[in-house]
Design brief:
The protein is of the alpha+beta class. The protein contains eight helices and 13 strands. It has a single domain, classed as PPM-type phosphatase domain (Phosphatase 2c, domain 1, 4-Layer Sandwich), CATH 3.60.40. Strands 1, 2, 3, 9, 10, 12 and 13 form a seven-stranded antiparallel β-sheet that branches.
């Protein structure tokens, strides 16, 4: 778990420089932080995980997720780690880093399952996962759960990922008022998580980049207590200062009661 990470700028290609900053906070009502973040500007990848399964299980699941996935991204031959049963799930992806992202998430899922099976105190643990890898002129995103990835382009915020949650499935079926959403009995129940990926469903998203694009990876400790327009305003107010933007977003969650751990990673390409 990392409480704040930052670094300099790195010339990633002839087109873009990449800047990143991350911050995580335990919140006001929680005693432990089950979120885990990792910022690697040198290799231009970023990881955010929100663990579940009690105090110990949640922390361990998110730690395993960030550790395993980063090890795959840093591997000089990551495709050598492909499990035979996973081949059919990656062969439809044309981008090599999209394949690597999916392989990394599968491996993290298996490691969480193995640890869960080996230790009774970790039984049933799981984690959401958001990964962002900047490669040449593309952003490759891996997504499982209800943590989110947003993209800010030309002053407009776009939600890139789709929540894997019971609430989101209900919203697809019918319109719900803000009050209904707030009081929905299964609001925080997710439908996919690392440690429970028997169906191998992982969202891999690809975005062609433009200079000035800014990505936000965040846990639901932020989005459960803020609206998208508030997030957009906080990013605009920071005017490209990623540390200020991260501080603004975390402070917003805390000012709204801080009921959960809150984590954010900001990434800008120039």
């Amino acid at each position: 778990m990392v409480n704040g990470m930052s670094g300099g700028e790195k010339q990633h290609s002839v087109t873009f420089k990449v800047k990143g900053y991350g911050k995580t906070n335990v919140g006001i009502r929680r005693r432990s932080n089950q979120d885990s973040i990792l910022v690697d500007q040198d290799k231009s990848f970023f990881i955010l995980a929100d663990g579940m399964g009690g105090h110990l299980g949640g922390e361990e699941a998110s730690r395993i997720a960030t550790s395993v996935i980063s090890s795959v991204f840093l591997d000089s031959d990551p495709m050598s780690r492909v499990n035979a049963e996973d081949v059919k799930f990656i062969e439809g992806l044309s981008n090599e880093m999209a394949k690597v992202t999916k392989v990394a998430i599968f491996l993290a899922d298996r490691e969480i399952v193995q640890e869960s099976n080996n230790r009774a105190d970790l039984r049933g643990m799981g984690s959401t996962i958001e990964t962002l890898y900047i490669h040449d002129n593309m952003a490759i995103i891996g997504h499982v759960g209800d943590s989110r990835v947003y993209m800010m382009r030309d002053g407009k915020l776009e939600l890139v990922t789709e929540d894997h949650s019971i609430l989101n499935e209900e919203l697809k079926k019918r319109d719900m008022s803000p009050e209904e959403i707030a009081n929905f009995p299964f609001k925080n129940r997710i439908t996919r998580a690392l440690g429970h990926l028997s169906d191998r469903h992982v969202d891999i998203l690809q975005k062609e980049l433009k200079p000035g694009d800014t990505f936000l990876l965040c846990s639901d400790g932020l989005t459960d207590v803020t609206d998208d327009w508030e997030i957009e305003e906080a990013l605009l107010e920071a005017d490209g200062d990623l540390e200020k933007a991260a501080d603004n977003l975390v402070d917003m969650a805390l000012d709204s009661g801080g009921p959960d751990n809150v984590s954010v990673i900001l990434v800008m390409v120039e």
